[in-house]
Amino acid sequence: xxxxxxxxxxxxxxxxxxxxxxxxxxxxxxxxxxxxxxxxxxxxxxxxxxxxxxxxxxxxxxxxxxxxxxxxxxxxxxxxxxxxxxxxxxxxxxxxxxxxxxxxxxxxxxxxxxxxxxxxxxxxxxxxxxxxxxxxxxxxxxxxxxxxxxxxxxxxxxxxxxxxxxxxxxxxxxxxxxxxxxxxxxxxxxxxxxxx
Length: 196
Hints:
The structure is a single chain. Helix 3 (111-119) runs parallel beside helix 4. Helices cover 16% and strands 30% of the residues. The chain has 196 residues and is α/β, with parallel strands linked by helices. The strands form 3 sheets. Strands 1-13-11-5-7-9-10-4-12 form a 9-stranded mixed beta sheet. It has a single domain (2-15, 45-189), classed as Glucose Oxidase, domain 1, CATH 3.50.30. This is Cyclase family protein. It holds the Pfam family Cyclase. InterPro entries: KFase/CYL (IPR007325), KFase_sf (IPR037175).
């Protein structure tokens, strides 16, 4: 069994322009008078490798605590693509019934591509980029995906991951009312490396 960690280290990861940067502040430190360490955190809901909840772009959408876990955990397919990801690309990727999809490569999902992913019944989409759409199409792409309640993972690390079938575990933190959550997605290849 081989486990791929798809996450970036939170405090060193690039921050999307305009988002708050994560910060950490010691509250308690081990010393002669203190038995433990405790740290206060300040961060944006979309720092580092993170998941978007429908609420991110859909006013009445579900929050992070309401995202269905079965969408985030289970069999997953990895494909390699670069450039625009169109409706034709989406139909091709999901033709075998894939419900969870990770795309390795520098891509920009077109609004039509996003609509096709939603129409074809995708549950989960992960990309390496900090966002799924382009500068002028980002809102439309997010609304098409999140409006269909597709669990969306951004800033994933897919270096060294070959195209193929895997098992995905990408559960977000259970935070009521939030539009996104940092997470640590794992991709598991049960066939590589022998028995666990």
